[in-house]
Amino acid sequence: MLQYSRLCQLIHDSLHPLTVKSSVLMTNEEEKLLLITLSQVLNKIKVWTAEFDSGSGSGSDSDNGDHVMDDLKYHSSASCCIPKITNELVFLLCLESQYGQHLAANVLVSVSEFVVASGSCWEEFMQSLCFYFERMIYKVISPSSDPPIRAKHLELLDLQRVLDNARWQSVGAIVLVLRNILKQLKQEDDAKILEIYFQVLGSCLEVIPWDACNIILADDINAPRSSWFEFCGNLLQLFCSLADCEEKNPAVRAIFNVFPNILTWCFGMPAENHNYSCQSQYTRHKILVLMIRLSSLINLDCATVVSWLHLIEKYFHDLLSESVSEPEADQYDCHRDSPFSGTSHRHLQRRVIFLYVKCAFSLTGLKEHCKKQCSCGNMKSCSKRGFTALYEWLKKHLPANIHHNRELYDDCCKRFTKSFIQLYMHEDDMLFQILLQLTYAPFEYAQPITEDWISEVVEKDILFLLSDIFDPVRLFHLFLSELHYDHQVLLDYLISKDIGASCAEYLLRCLRIICDKWNSFLEFPFRAEVERQPFPKRRKFEDEKACEHAFNKARECLLLLKKSVGSLHQKDLFPYNPQVLLRRLTRFQELCLKRV
Length: 596
Prior knowledge:
- With 596 residues, the chain is mostly helical.
- It is built from 29 helices and no strands.
- It has helices at residues 2-19, 28-54, 65-70, 78-92, 98-118, 122-141, 151-154, 159-164, 168-188, 191-207, 211-219, 226-242, 251-267, 281-297, 302-315, 317-321, 345-364, 370-373, 379-395, 406-424, 428-439, 451-456, 460-469, 472-482, 487-495, 500-516, 518-522, 536-570, 579-595.
- Helix 1 (2-19) runs parallel beside helix 4 (78-92).
- It is elongated and about 85 Å long.
């Protein structure tokens, strides 16, 4: 194709004279000239890509057309051009020049956009780029080895100059290029292009000997690791981006298999004595994001879930143990919640607790779908591990022996649950993730636990404590209370592009639970909010008054929400069909009318 011949000649004529000596070391003048040339090449490729998008990419060019036609005999096909282009640019990723490496990476991303816009050779480009990723990481892991190389690449490429200069920094640069390409592809919204990207990269990830990196890390313990950690950071970012795609993604399974290595690389070898809380907050954040996304994409077996609980307890013990309550002033400190802040404990704590609770719940609920999940054959042992994990975590946040003092027990449960809800009120997406997770609690109304299960798996005291703290009716009341019973806030949640679906799902589940457990909804206790009265009769009166107030406020909020949603739906202004939600709210209204 003429377009690829033109691109190939641009890259070769512009860059090859600057890299022909195959040295990654450059003088200041050479670096300056390279940066100018790369900028010119980048701008030219963007112009050509725009021609494709505008429909005028016919392959003719007033400045270069004749010269390209003269050289076609050297570049007769796109399949020949792509490896040559990739070879020239990947070599530049090995440069000692940070700015040159950065610009070369941008040119590679721009070339990917050119290939996508051309409508052809996308798979060849991805295979070429992943070929270098695979060869370079092999070379860095085992410099003396010579793994077999595919013949079609060997005969076309000056491969050795790239491999001789391969380092963790250059491998990390390719990883960053792959991630930036993925970011561009997500904006294109082309399912076929994404599918090829996932397939080629997934195949590449599966053949790389990741376990050998552990050996390198152990043997080279005293060596400078800045480039190694840069590579790990780029790889972690790429994996998070891959795990955030809704399309069927073959790369996810490969990422899942590499994940234990990621923890070792980021936190150190198992034998080393580490204070894991001192690790980069951003690294911890990305690891948690990756774990949460993988847990949603892959059906984890019980052995994996148990190992994940252990990993969370080991690497995030400080966040699990930290109190869920926070000072009033912190609720308005926006910078404190940023993952880029050095003090973003709350941001990380929300994710740690969510992931821990999700893993524990998946074990406690094994009795409902044991054949699908329990691969170890000891279903009750796995379930017991889930209940124990939840109980041991709660014990860190509650006074000792609260079971022996009913009044203290009630107050502590209510205060903890309220603090738990408040912890998540600052992040809407995490708020509905955790609330939805808690509606699937295995000890709630829809999944009653039998006596034999209690005797063999979980003690009654533990079960009652978990049931009281994670009671979905109590959580829903407290959720509305934190919104100050403002139906407009609920409406904003429902029509939000980002969290509308999860909010609607949560409301649907809660309305069903409320209608099935109507008395519990009416009798929601607010005793912890009422000043203690020394006389039982007076205290009972105050409790009943508080319950009546909570019910009335919740009823008013939900009925106003029903009215607003119905009005928007009639005007065809609601972003999706809310008929199911309106039916649930109508059922709630009917129960309220019966009470009157």
